[in-house]
Specification:
The protein has 12 helices and 12 strands. By secondary structure, it is of the alpha/beta class. The longest helix has 15 residues. It comes from Vreelandella subterranea.
Length: about 350
């Protein structure tokens, strides 16, 4: 009989993308389980596109009316899940799983919400000793073992595998958008999504201008990405770059985050802070250059992208800098490293 698993990661887009390796391990276990995810509405398009997910349930959120919370509880009860895997635990979610009568409930052994779970895994994530996606994989493997499923062999990127023809089509569309037939397509995402800190626009200008002139591979087509509320910021970066003699254009706006992600698959590199787009790029296994603050719980190791190691560049502010101060990031060194990477790859 097929085991039914409910996986919960109901916070930011980047956090959800770092759950994809864990979802891949679950879906590749044997016998193959049925995997459902509980996510907020804004990550639902990505969840529905995930090849490791069979079904998606929308979480109305902690601020939803009691009637909506009741509907969610009844929906989960009716599904009769064999196991619950909570990758980031909150009291509301822990209580939800307990009230739904899910027999096996797995979560990290942190905070008092762990009382609602009967398989608690000690991880101490705040110490940042391994990547977030690996913490998630560890939880998934513990669940696989508890359900007496057979673990799959080690899974390697991409965790969002796409057909080569689809990637080539997206690349063709982007090149047509910049009226070019060839060249590198590099996306810069200066926004923060309201959570992660990022470089200033002046730092991005300095970085892009240096890469543009140092890199031995030409031409480079710069595409500036923006979230729904970040278009003025993207436009300002395009203006500032133009003042320095570097042409940049808007990354095409798409109707959904899934469409954005698929278009991103046609590019060569994404440069950003530790935001949703950076981790989408990681899942797609395109090259990433990520910028991280000097904060123990937000290190470049902890929030490492899940692409192949050879496609991943990380840069951080000085350890002595305030956690939200990115001004100490060595832009000159980053520009040289990114340019060298581009010349090799």
């Amino acid at each position: 009989m097929t085991q039914k698993i409910l996986v919960i990661r109901n916070d930011k887009i980047g956090d959800f993308m770092l759950a994809w390796p864990a979802l891949a391990y679950l879906k590749n276990a044997s016998p193959t389980p049925h995997v459902t995810v509980l996510v907020p509405s804004y990550t639902a398009p990505l969840a529905k596109a995930c090849p490791w997910v069979d079904e998606v349930i929308i979480d109305p959120g902690s601020s939803a009316a009691p009637s909506a919370q009741h509907v969610l509880l009844e929906q989960i009860k009716a599904a009769r899940f064999d196991a619950l895997l909570t990758l980031f635990s909150t009291p509301r979610i822990g209580w939800l799983g307990w009230r739904a009568g899910i027999r096996l409930r797995v979560a990290p052994a942190t905070k008092w919400a762990q009382i609602f779970y009967n398989l608690r895994i000690k991880q101490r994530r705040s110490r940042s000793t391994k990547p977030e996606y690996q913490y998630n994989v560890d939880l998934a493997l513990a669940l696989i073992d508890k359900l007496s499923l057979t673990r799959p062999a080690m899974l390697l990127p991409p965790y969002w595998p796409l057909d080569t023809r689809q990637r080539e089509y997206q690349r063709k569309v982007l090149l047509e958008n910049v009226q070019a037939k060839e060249g590198l397509l590099i996306v810069v995402h200066p926004g923060s999504g309201g959570s992660a800190v990022n470089l200033s626009l002046d730092q991005y200008v300095d970085l892009v201008v240096q890469i543009h002139h140092i890199s031995k591979i030409q031409p480079i087509h710069w595409l500036i990405s923006a979230g729904p509320s970040e278009h003025p910021q993207a436009q300002e970066l395009i203006r500032l770059l133009a003042n320095k003699g570097v042409v940049a254009t808007h990354f095409p706006t798409r109707s959904s985050v899934e469409a954005y992600a698929l278009q991103l698959a046609g590019t060569d590199m994404l440069i950003a802070g530790s935001t949703g787009p950076l981790h989408i790029a990681g899942c797609l296994n395109i090259a990433t250059a990520g910028f991280y603050p000097a904060k123990r719980s937000a290190t470049s190791l902890r929030w490492q992208t899940c692409n192949s190691a050879e496609k991943r560049l990380n840069f951080s502010s000085f350890s002595s800098a305030p956690e939200k101060n990115m001004l100490t990031v060595d832009i000159d060194s980053a520009a040289k490293d990114i340019s060298l990477f581009l010349s090799k790859h």
